[in-house]
Automatic annotation (TrEMBL):
It comes from Ficus carica (Common fig). The keyword Signal applies. InterPro entries: GASA. Keywords: Signal. Belongs to the GASA family. Residues 1-28 form the signal peptide. It holds the Pfam family GASA. This is Protein RSI-1.
Amino acid sequence: MASPRPYSSHLLVLSLLLLVAFSQVAEARGSGKLRPSDCKPKCTYRCSATSHKKPCMFFCQKCCAKCLCVPPGTYGNKQVCPCYNSWKTKEGGPKCP
């Protein structure tokens, strides 16, 4: 009769691989990753390349407070923060810079 140990070790390895994969997916999404106190420095960098700093900072901080996420870089990459990316104005344009 075969010992059940080989199956349990395979199950353990598979479980660990799944745990690592899910943690990387959660990290990539960035949702809920920031604390509200992290918003201002993240938005300062996000808005550093625009000539419209005041409105950019206002909306970025508003979006960050709601989504707890700011996309990396000074432009684009919004797919990293689904909440930030999907928040729209009344006219249907993007609310978050």
